[in-house]
Specification:
By secondary structure, the chain is mainly α. It contains 6 helices and 2 strands; from the N terminus they run H-H-H-H-E-E-H-H. Helix 3 crosses helix 4.
């Protein structure tokens, strides 16, 4: 929890338990979610709204576009929930719907300057704190952590995909 010391230290897992790093990753995820809920709430944005903007931003940065179908799939939402999400982001001025020039049936979602401004206001304090924390590590240490976090993301995606394909 915030303000509490973490007693987990890297090393072998406790008898039969997960490695202390797994617990730290779980705690980081919980604290990151709490941050998003608190900071996003100040802009009247839910975590799902911010996750949607992150999906749109990532695809746009990679030269792609986002359709409602892509958003639905990446956020694991139903079609009605996706429509409600897009309506909310459109009504708040964070996203605009644009028709594809070659296929007018296809809708593309684009973030607005307001989305970038609000996103900056929400995440700048976190980015500043994380940057300050990272400054205490060498380039080599950060490279190792980057490789580790990349492997953890890949493991999480693989576990999710495996879980999704397992019959109930």
């Amino acid at each position: 929890m915030a303000g509490e010391e973490t007693s987990a230290a890297p090393g072998p897992p406790a008898a039969g338990g997960p490695h202390p790093l797994v617990r730290l990753l779980q705690e980081f995820t919980l604290e990151a979610n709490r941050y998003v809920d608190t900071a996003g709430g100040r802009k009247d944005m839910h975590r799902t709204d911010l996750n949607a903007l992150a999906v749109i931003m990532r695809h746009t940065a990679n030269g792609g576009t986002v359709t409602p179908g892509i958003l639905r799939k990446e956020l694991n939402l139903s079609s009605p929930a996706t429509t409600a999400l897009i309506d909310r982001l459109d009504n708040s001025g964070h996203v605009v719907r644009e028709r594809d020039s070659s296929d007018r049936r296809q809708v593309h979602l684009r973030m607005t300057p307001k989305a970038f401004q609000d996103g900056g206001a929400i995440f700048a304090p976190l980015s500043h704190r994380m940057g300050s924390a990272m400054a205490n590590f060498s380039a080599e240490e950060l490279e190792t952590v980057t490789r580790f976090m990349t492997a953890m993301v890949e493991a999480t995606v693989a576990a999710r995909e495996e879980s999704a394909s397992t019959p109930r």
